[in-house]
Fold:
Amino acid sequence: MRFTPTEEQAQLKELAAKASRQLFATTIEKDEEEGIFRREIIRELGKLGLTGIPTPVEYDGAGLGYLEYAIALEEIAAYGAAYAISVAVSGLPQVILNLFGNEQQKKKYIPPLARGEHIGAFSLSESHAGSDAGSLKARAVKNGSEYVLNGTKLWTTQGNVADTVIVFARTGGEGPRGVSAFIVEKGTKGFRAGKTEHKMAANASPTCEMILEDVVVPASSLVGEEGQGFKIAMTALDSGRITIGATAVGLGRAAFEYSTKFAKERKQFGQPIADFQGIQFMVADMYTALEASRLLVQRAAYLKDSGLPFTREASAAKLFSTDATMSITTDAVQLLGGVGYTKEYPVERYMREAKVLQIVEGTNQIQRMVIGRSI
Ligand SMILES: Cc1cc2nc3c(=O)[nH]c(=O)nc-3n(C[C@H](O)[C@H](O)[C@H](O)COP(=O)(O)OP(=O)(O)OC[C@H]3O[C@@H](n4cnc5c(N)ncnc54)[C@H](O)[C@@H]3O)c2cc1C
Structure:
C-alpha cells in the first residue's frame, strides 16, 4: 500500500476539489438551510467521471478502484457532505448490479447512473426494521411473469429524485433469508415518495419515505435470486462503509482547516489563541484523529481493490472515522468559541452533519457488532 498518491490519483483529487469549488461550495450553505438538492450538480460531476469511479469502463464508469473513489469523495465532502452522500448512494445500485445483476440489467441501468444522468437509491430500511433490516415487512408476491410489491420503506436517501431504486422486499418467510432485491424505476405505477424528513442536517440530501401500493414490476426486475436480497444489501453496505468513511474524512478536514486557521487569527490575552498549549493539544488530537481516519479508510479501500477480505476493515474505518469526525467537528466549534455556535460560521453545520455519519449504513453500534463478531 502506497502512502503517497500516484500522479493519476493526485489529478483526480484536484479534479474533484475544483469541481466541488465551482459547483456547490458557495451555494451549499443556503441549500442546506432551504433543503434544496440540485440534480444538475450530479449531472456535472458525472460529465467529469466522478459519479461512477469504481464502475467498469464497459458500463461507462471510470474503471478505477475504491482508493480513487475514497480520494474523490473526501474532496467532495470537504466542500459539501450532502453531495458526497449523494454520489455514494447513487453508487450503491451500481455496485449491486455490477456484482449481482444479469447482463441485461447491467447494460440498461448502470451506464446512466455512472454518467450521472440518472440518480440511484437504496431502499432497505423500514420504520420497525433499521439495524435489524432482516425483519423488513414490505412484500413482493410473484404473479406469473411479474411481481407485485406492497409496503412502506423509510429513510431512502434521494428516493424522491431517484430514477433507479433498489427496493428490498420479502418474497419468502420471516428473517433475512426471505428478502429479495428488486429494481424499481421512477414513475412505476403505485411507487412514490412519501414525506421528506426534516433533519438536523444534510438537508441538501433528501431522505424520504417510499410508498409501494400494488407496484407491478416484471420478473426480470429481480436482482440475483429470490432470497438473496439480504446478502446483496450487506455486500453493498460493506463497500458503502468505505464511502461513508471517506465522506467523514472530508468533512472532518473541512472543520479542522477552518478552525485551525481561525485559531491563528483570533487573539485573546494579547496573543493568537493558537499559541496556547491548551489549544495546541486540541489541534494535535484533531490532526491525529483525521490522519488515522484517512489511513483506515484507504486501507479498507486498498484491501477491497486487491480482492482481499475487507468487511471488518471497512466497518473499523467507518466506525473510527465517523466517531473521529464527530469529535473533530465538536472541537472545531469549541475552537471558535461563541461564534462557532452561530450560523455565521460553517462549523456548527459540520458538527450537525457529522452526527448522521455515525448512524447511516449501519450505526456505529452495529459496526462494533460486525467487528466484534468477526474477531
Ligand atoms: C439521513 C439518513 C439517511 C438514510 N439513508 C438510508 C438509505 O438510503 N437507505 C436505507 O435503507 N436506510 C437509510 N437510512 C436508515 C439507516 O440505515 C438507519 O437509520 C440505521 O440503520 C439505524 O436504524 P434505526 O434508525 O431504525 O435505529 P434502530 O435500529 O432502532 O437503533 C436505535 C439505537 O439502538 C442501537 N442498536 C440497535 N440494535 C443494536 C444492537 N444489536 N446492539 C447495540 N445497539 C443496537 C442503534 O445503534 C441505535 O443507537 C438513513 C438514515 C438517515 C438518518
Summary: The chain is about 50% helix and 15% strand.
